[in-house]
Design brief:
Elements (H helix, E strand, L loop, with lengths): L1 H17 L9 E5 L4 E9 L2 E7 L3 E2 L2 E2 L1 E5 L33
Antiparallel strand pairs: 1-6, 2-3, 4-5
């Protein structure tokens, strides 16, 4: 019985651990909602990140986007320069920081 419990715990830990998908300084990256095209994030070079996504929007009752995040606490300062590259098919495309209390 102990062996079964250990195997279940190991499998649970493996599944939880494998869901982490770090990129550079970010702990994880995920698609939010159900975007038509899966998103991705890569470190293009030192301190330069490239995110791609094909979601609907970020407002009203339907959020679809790709999100790279890092949980931090305390006081902090965020700075970034954002730019779109390539063809932007939707004039309402967005990029930016999202900061949440929890």
């Amino acid at each position: 019985m102990k062996n079964i419990i250990y195997i279940l715990l190991y499998c649970s830990f493996s599944v939880a651990y494998s869901q982490e998908n770090p990129v550079g300084i970010f702990q994880n990256q995920v698609d939010v909602g159900n975007p038509k095209d899966s998103g991705s994030a890569i470190v293009a070079s030192s301190q330069i990140y490239s995110l791609a996504s094909g979601g609907y929007n970020i407002w009203f009752g339907r959020d679809e986007f790709h999100f790279a995040y890092k949980k931090i606490s305390g006081d902090f300062i965020l700075t970034a320069n954002f730019e779109f590259t390539g063809t932007i098919p939707d004039p309402h495309s967005k990029v930016g920081w999202m900061v949440r209390e929890s």
